Amino acid sequence: MIRNAITTFERTRPTGWGTLLLFGAATATYVTASVVVVEEGLLDEPVAATHGLVDEALLCSAAALLVIVGGVLFGIGKLKAWDVGLSAARLPTALAVTLALWVLGQLVILIIGLIHAGTITLHHDWPEYQATQVFGQVIGQLFGNALFEEIAYRGFLLTQVYLLLATRPAWSVKTRLIAAVAISQAFFALMHIPIRLHQGTEPAALPLNLLATVFFGVFLCWVYLRTGNLFIAIGVHALINKPTPLLECVFAPQHVLLILVVLMLLLWPWLTRPRGRALPTGGTV
Predict the structure, then answer these.
(1) Percent helix, strand and coil across the chain, each rounded to 5?
(2) H or E segment at 9?
């Protein structure tokens, strides 16, 4: 599976240092500006006007998708959707996988709740917030934050760093891939520094927090490389950020989803293996 992803990388159009540097500068500016905009409450009115259905993550990420993805990557970099991991043919599979993970997560939470307490309780998000706010957060992840970050840091940056390292013929494919993952996801973590400080992370706790962000980025690289489907990585990213459980859970719902995703990735070759017995003519039954 990963070998297939590497083949896809090598068929991607390289952009070179100019586009990479412009991408880095634009992304750093976007992250810093987004924190300022949120802190100043400049998005409060549109969020309130839609009762939370349009949230801050969606609005900020829409600007990033327009300027960074549309302007820098597609415009200046001359890349196509395929070059950043987007293929419409892979969307139906990703939708099915994302929905299946969410449903399985709800079932696991239900079973754990029944075993642990003998009863189930509606998750506190639903009585506490209006349903539009909950749905708005999900939409903000699927069509905003997770969409932008997967295109930027996995679909684009991971691939382009790998292609740049391909100019080192002494390095094996494995070494180039490991280095590309490490470099791209270190940048992914660094771009979260303003966000973490805005969220109240103490400076002393920042290194450990950023290390966890690196691991999360590496995990999402594994999802992308293992499945060869960036849309699945987008769905997983959105679910981890906003699990949207229906019921209360004694464990963090993110942990349940992480376990389910790991199991899915381990079983991925079996899950995607063609079913049926081959006929002499090449058909199946």
Answers:
(1) 75, 0, 25
(2) helix 2-10
Q: Where are the domains of the chain?
A: 2-14+82-270
pLDDT of 117-150, one tens digit each? 777 888 888 877 778 889 999 999 999 999 999 9
Q: How far apart are CA 206 and CA 209, in angstroms?
A: 5
Q: Is 237 in contact with 138 (CB distance < 8 Å)?
A: no
pTM over 0.90: yes
In angstroms, the CA 157 to CA 147 distance is 14
* CA separation for the pair 101, 41 (Å, rounded): 34
Residue 255, classed as helix, strand or coil, is helix
CB distance 141 to 238 below 8 Å: yes
Amino acid at site 87: S
Here the tokens at position 68 are 């960074």
